[in-house]
Amino acid sequence: MSELNQLSPQPLWQLFANICAIPHPSKHEQQISLWIQDWAKQQGLSVKEDEVGNLFIKKPATAGMENKKGVILQAHMDMVPQKNSDTQHDFLTDPIRPYIDGDWVTADGTTLGADNGIGLCSALAVLASNDIPHGPLEVLITIDEEAGMSGAFGLKSGWLDGEILINTDSEQEGEVYMGCAGGVDASSTFSLEMVSVPSDYESFNLSISGLKGGHSGVDIHTGRANANKLLVRFLLQMSETFGIGLTELNGGSLRNAIPREANASLVIAKTKVEAFKQALKQYINTLKSNLAVVEPDLDMMLLQPETFEQMWSPACQKRILSALNGCPNGVLRMSDDIQGVVETSSNLGVMRTKGPKFVALCLIRSLHDDGRLEAQEMIQSVFSLAGAKVEFSGAYPGWKPSTDSAVMNIVSDTYKQLFGKSPEIMVIHAGLECGLFKTEYPDLDMVSIGPTIKFPHSPDEKVEIASVGEYWKLLTKVLANIPDKG
Known about the structure:
Layout: H1 10-20, H2 30-42, E1 46-49, E2 55-59, E3 71-76, E4 98-101, E5 104-107, H3 114-128, E6 137-142, H4 150-153, E7 164-167, E8 175-180, E9 182-191, E10 194-196, E11 201-209, E12 214-215, H5 227-242, E13 245-251, E14 257-258, E15 262-269, H6 273-290, E16 299-303, E17 310-312, H7 314-326, E18 330-334, E19 342-354, E20 357-366, H8 369-385, E21 389-396, H9 406-419, E22 424-428, H10 434-440, E23 445-448, E24 453-454, E25 462-464, H11 465-481
Parallel strand pairs: 3-6, 3-7, 7-23, 8-22
Antiparallel strand pairs: 1-2, 2-6, 4-5, 5-25, 9-20, 9-21, 10-17, 11-15, 11-16, 12-14, 13-15, 18-19, 19-20, 24-25
Helix pairs in contact: 1-3, 5-7, 9-11
């Protein structure tokens, strides 16, 4: 981590090196929360914690800036815990191992946590500084953004005083975000019907791996393959052709990450094994040919494990595989209003066999409530027809763009002053917390900026070093350019 301490801006990178050493996956933010609180107190700053675990830190205006509009810098303290299958790492106890790879910082076999660790550390670095001019300043650090947004959902009125909120969770330098997608989780649960495995059947484990995965919002349009969908398609074909029987089916790990790996335990009549292997070989060749550009490391492996005594009944298996195969996945509609922006998408993120139950988890995103509802209805129809119990939870609103945003104009003008070009004004197909903040603070003027982060929510996650410096210049200059109170 001493490598990071040599990067600029040094205070930000030093803080990031510190938080990489503190486990902070979603739902397990206690250690980093205590560290932040202790750190703030050491800086002589006021820090409070609300009932759900969000942190609020205040810093008075620098001399001569007391009459400026109050600004809230906002970040989340949790990170997505994803690792490669051959990486030994416990996200509850082990530190992230960041390193410099050319022009980027990445991690050894795991997610890096630059999402939103860089934004978090930029806010802390402003708090720690003595030479950055700013008006009345607040920092809001939420919990659980990546796994349910319970921090943003739990934010109550009366905690924040500022008029302007700068969200630090965007992932492309040179783009300024003025809106985001809303979303909802879909859970479809099947009751498994089991039958005995015939005596003349052999047992196998089939896995797919080597896919890139990624963020189910910002990467959904890239054509990256979904391991769950690829495996299910083949299993359904083999069920109809060779009568294979499933004993277990699992894939993915998070509903907001494109699945990189999936696996199935299955049985097949001994007389059909060789033909099955040939069909698998042909399917692998087809996938590698079709996905050679976007998924060059795709691989499927067939192993022979212990003998299985029970399998799913053929009727139960057909219902589950048919529903999974028909489940809407990927980009469902592009925006008519904003060129190049995804309007509605769905991600079949998780498949799990849990004892007598099988569960499929999807995350639906849309810029419009009706788009989200339409996708919900499609998933409801597909899985209900197959006999599953379908439930939707955690719905959160999008952040509707405001064309007359004062802070948007400040950020845009400041960017032009610094870099001699205009930023791209964007809407992101991801669940920023800004839409939820509007519920309790409807008058907040909001904008979202950040450095360039590639492939968040996957072990390929990396942050561009130069873009962190540019983001820092923009953030600190915007704070200096905030206007006086009305």
